[in-house]
């Protein structure tokens, strides 16, 4: 069980430090699943910033089920994230899949994401633990809470205390109407078990944009410290995860609704 106060994870961004933690405003991370081109990432950055997001997310290296699916634009996407970071002032969060890419990702990213599929890639966890950028650790889709906390422990044990835990839905028996089952019960459970800050990702958690706003609000009501929301300027044309992506307008409405229930931005 947790001993003592909740931790604060401070992430430096061009606009200044952003704090994740129980006693701080809800931090919202928004952006497309994948960085597709310069126009879309800059436009998304500017729109989500105007709505109150503090971080831009976007994949350069994508973990796709099929090897024939779009795998991300890699290094050129990192350059576009650097540009979007510069023009928007937002912090950047992007995923590392291969430790060989870690240094060049850490040059651009303010926070490094370890995805659900790599949650128990222990050699990768040791390497993100041995560098200094804060880490966003997504829950594996079949990981128990114990598995997840022990994965976080790998990062902490390697010397990096700055870990945020992100619930993104787990596999249950029904995939007909939802992509995953968003486990919102982890919010109070993690609060009891760990001092680390909590993020909820209702985009991957549900798989459908129409379900994202209610689950985002529920996450805040449950006490989540932060949210990750996929946003794309034209979800129908997205190269990955279009069905679960909000338009910038829908994201803006959600941010206003989150303000209504209290703790947001
Ligand atoms: C993502 O954030 O785009 C992603 C691939 O997430 P997850 O690892 O949770 O599937
Ligand atoms: Mn995605």
UniProtKB/TrEMBL annotation:
<dbReference type="GO" id="GO:0016740">
    <property type="term" value="F:transferase activity"/>
</dbReference>
<feature type="domain" description="DAHP synthetase I/KDSA">
    <location>
        <begin position="17"/>
        <end position="259"/>
    </location>
</feature>
<dbReference type="GO" id="GO:0009073">
    <property type="term" value="P:aromatic amino acid family biosynthetic process"/>
</dbReference>
<protein>
    <submittedName>
        <fullName>3-deoxy-7-phosphoheptulonate synthase</fullName>
    </submittedName>
</protein>
<keyword id="KW-0808">Transferase</keyword>
<dbReference type="GO" id="GO:0016832">
    <property type="term" value="F:aldehyde-lyase activity"/>
</dbReference>
């Amino acid at each position: 069980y947790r001993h003592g106060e909740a931790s604060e994870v401070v992430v430096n961004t061009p606009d200044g430090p952003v704090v994740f933690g129980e006693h701080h405003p809800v931090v919202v991370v928004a952006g497309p699943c994948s960085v597709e081109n310069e126009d879309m990432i800059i436009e998304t950055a500017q729109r989500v910033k105007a709505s109150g997001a503090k971080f831009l997310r976007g994949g350069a290296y994508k973990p796709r089920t099929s090897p024939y699916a779009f795998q991300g634009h890699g290094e050129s996407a990192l350059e576009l994230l650097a540009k979007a970071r510069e023009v928007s002032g937002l912090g950047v969060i992007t995923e590392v899949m291969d430790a060989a890419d870690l240094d060049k990702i850490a040059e651009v990213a303010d926070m490094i994401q370890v995805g659900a599929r790599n949650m128990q890639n222990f050699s990768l966890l040791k390497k993100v633990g041995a560098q200094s950028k804060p880490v966003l650790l997504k829950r594996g889709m079949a990981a128990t809470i114990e598995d997840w906390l022990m994965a976080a422990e790998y990062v902490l044990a390697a010397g990096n205390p700055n870990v945020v835990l992100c619930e993104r839905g787990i596999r249950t028996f029904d995939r007909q109407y939802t992509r995953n089952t968003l486990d919102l019960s982890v919010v109070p459970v993690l609060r009891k078990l760990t001092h680390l800050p909590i993020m909820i990702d209702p985009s991957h958690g549900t798989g459908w944009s129409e379900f994202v706003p209610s689950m985002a609000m529920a996450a805040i009501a449950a006490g989540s410290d932060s949210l990750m929301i996929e946003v794309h300027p034209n979800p129908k044309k997205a190269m990955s995860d279009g069905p679960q992506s909000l338009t910038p307008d829908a994201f803006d409405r959600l941010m206003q609704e989150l303000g209504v229930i209290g703790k947001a931005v």
